[in-house]
Structures are given as C-alpha cells and as structure tokens.
Amino acid sequence: MEHDTERVTLARLPSGVEIATTVHTYEGSDDGPTVYVQAAQHGREVNGTEVLRRVHDRLTTGDADSVGADSELVGRIVAVPVADPLTFDRVSYTTPEQLDSVNPNMNRVWPGDSEGTLHERMAARLWEYAGEADAIVDLHTGSPDMLTHVVFMEGHEESRAMAEAFGTDLLLSEEAGDDADEEWAARDFGGKLRVAANQEGIPTITPELAFNKQIVESAVETGVVGTLNVFRHLGLLDEPVEPNGDPTLARNHLGRVTADDSGLFRADPDHAVGDEVEEGEHLGTLYDPTTFEVLQEARADRDGILYSLALESTVAAGDSLLNVAWQRE
Ligand SMILES: [Zn+2]
C-alpha cells in the first residue's frame, strides 16, 4: 500500500491568501475501484475528520485494534479530511457573506464551477477527484438532537447497498428532482455532492454522525466501522462487513414540524430520537417565555421514526422542531 499526500489550492481569498487543503491517496497493491471520502465540507462537522484520521491509521499501520483483520488494500482511496477550510476555521455551517454571498453553503454547489463563486471554485477543484471515483462517501455530522443516520437517493440501488453496508440505526432514502417535494427545490438540494454524484452515476452516501463541534466517541466509532464497511462492501478490503447498529430503512419526506411562532420549546422528556411515534403523538410544547402562554403543541405529523427533536430550546418562528421519517421495507 502506498500513501501520498498532496496540498491542493481550492481557491484564493480577496487578500490573495490561498485556501488549501490536504488530499490523501492510498494506493492498493492491486487494481480495484476508487472510493472518494471527504469530511467537514460543513466545517463544524468535525466527527468525520476524526473518522478519517482513524481510518488513516488503520490503512497505514495495519493496526487492527478496533477494526478486525489487517487485509491488503485493493484499489484506491482518496480522502479529504477538511473539504471546506473556511467553515472549518469559523466552526460554522456556512461562510460569511463577504466570502461567498451567493453560495454560503458549500453543499449546494456541486459539481462546482472553476470560474464561479468561491464555494463553486472550491467544489470544482475537489470534484476533479470525486468525479473520477467509483463511489463517494460524504461524511457529515448532524446536531446533537439528530439521530445518527445515512442518507441515500431513493431508487439508487448501489447507493442503498452502500448505506446498508455502512450501517447505523437509520437508513434514510431521499427523493430527488421531479419526484421530490417543494422544499427540495427551495433549499437547492440539487447541489448536494450526493445528488450531483448520483446524477453522474456515481453511487454516493451521506452519513450524518450525531454531535457537531465535538468529537464524540460513539459517533466516531460508528463512522470508522461504517467507512471501513463501505471499503469491504466494494472489495477494497477483503474482510466481511461488520455489524454497525441495527438499521431501520425509512423514507425522508423532507417535511418537518416547524415552530409556528418564536418562543421557548420544551421537548417531552419521555421521547428521544430513534423512538417510533404515531401521528398526532405529543412531542413538545412551545410557549411564550414571558407570559407562559402556549403557542404550539408540537405533534408527530405521521407514523414513523423520530429522527430529530430540537434540544436547543430557544427557537425562532419557522425553526425545525422535529422530523419523523416513514418506516418502510
Ligand atoms: Zn453537513
């Protein structure tokens, strides 16, 4: 196995300072598929970066402590631990207006444009690697109030197989394009790396490991086993896929229960993400903190699996309070 690193300039800031990141390439002893893995395109989502450090140790030292046998790598892995250094430095989700007022969210511009806005240029540079791959894993980290899960495109069988190999307790299929609902278009989901790659025929998954801003051991372990499982599933490592959670298959309808008004939200303490809930089930109360007037009784909008429930209690009108995914076969 050969390991190389390359320092790559993604774009330059107005002052001339270059935005650069490191691309790792792990070249196996025999030919095989190429897998592109990146983390932290939303820079506060740091668990994926720690996952890639642990995967790096596993690949370069053969250290089998946590992940089983030390088989030889076949094919190639290209890994980018910090896909968006701008948001990484700001511990943020988006860039400030001064740097990219048109596309503050890097995960809305794929496959990018080398003559476009800052994020479009950065994505275009990384797409030179991602677009050549046979499969892509785009590691993200949800907020603490979100269940760790993996997203794949509805109807894309090889992406679904990768999600099943990765594991976690929830595999969430998402519709795209004309089949998706209004929210999908309104939120520019067509520019997600996963969606752009699927349109090029590259199987792709988006694991959402819980807890941004913190390296949380349970989320990292799920990510390490899941990432290695994808390599195993695709034949890069000659090892069986390891159990990684108890996956339930569900469908993301993208609809959310949002706050009718601004106030303080108390989530019912007897509910947690991962619970099966029924339509109409009471999940929390939104109230005016000065008068105690109840503004909204938040209820499940369908039968399914509660996969996010707001834990940051001060909410603004329109904020997401909870998400329920449809369970399916
Ligand atoms: Zn993200």
Question: How would you describe this structure to a colleague?
Answer:
- The chain is α/β, with parallel strands linked by helices.
- It has two domains: 2-251, Zn peptidases (Aminopeptidase, 3-Layer(aba) Sandwich), CATH 3.40.630; 257-327, RNA polymerase II/Efflux pump adaptor protein, barrel-sandwich hybrid domain (OB fold (Dihydrolipoamide Acetyltransferase, E2P)).
- Helix content is 22%, strand content 31%.
- It contains seven helices and 17 strands.
- The protein has helices at 47-61, 85-90, 118-130, 157-166, 182-186, 193-199, 217-233, and strands spanning 2-12, 18-27, 30-39, 74-80, 135-141, 149-153, 170-174, 204-209, 248-252, 257-258, 263-267, 276-277, 282-287, 294-299, 304-309, 314-315, 320-327.
- Strands 1, 2, 3, 4, 5, 6, 7, 8, 9, 10, 12, 15 and 17 form a 13-stranded mixed β-sheet that branches. A four-stranded antiparallel β-sheet has the order 14-13-11-16, with no helix packed on it.
- Strand 1 (2-12) and strand 2 (18-27) form a beta hairpin.
- Residues 64-69 have low confidence and may be disordered.
- It binds zinc ion.
- Zinc ion binds next to loops.
